[in-house]
Write a structure and sequence with these properties.
Layout: E1 4-7, E2 10-13, E3 18-24, E4 33-38, E5 45-50, E6 56-58, E7 66-71, E8 76-81, E9 90-96, E10 109-114
Parallel strand pairs: 2-10
Antiparallel strand pairs: 1-3, 3-8, 4-5, 4-9, 5-6, 7-8, 9-10
Length: 115
């Protein structure tokens, strides 16, 4: 079973930026990887995904503000988040996409955006 470790979250003001990282314990280069988030009282949602070939997709809510990237040699996936808004406040997780193929979920990393 692959272990996933997310990091890079924190508290930022609206309009600020954060870069999240997710490192896997084994190779992930064959798989589509995604960043998900779960806000209080809401279901976990997929916000960005990157295929093994580098194609990317984004939820409408983050398109143009978030960028997903991956370094397969380091088994690491990144999420650059710009122009953060209070509605981006959530615990952010990485995992395979779609979620039906997910590994066990990691602890996630909290992102809090103040207005």
């Amino acid at each position: 079973q692959v272990q996933l470790a997310e990091s890079g979250g924190g508290l930022v003001q609206a309009g600020g930026s954060l870069r999240l990282s997710c490192t896997a314990s084994r190779s992930i280069f064959l798989y589509t990887m995604g960043w998900y988030r779960q806000a209080p009282g809401k279901q976990r949602e997929l916000v960005a995904a990157a295929t093994s070939g580098g194609s990317t997709n984004y939820a409408d809510s983050v398109k143009g503000r978030f960028t997903i990237s991956r370094d397969n040699a380091k088994n690491t996936v990144y999420l650059q988040m710009n122009s953060l808004q209070p509605e981006d406040t959530a615990v952010h997780y990485c995992n395979r996409a779609p979620s039906t193929q997910a590994y066990s979920w990691g602890q996630g990393t909290q992102v809090t955006v103040s207005s």
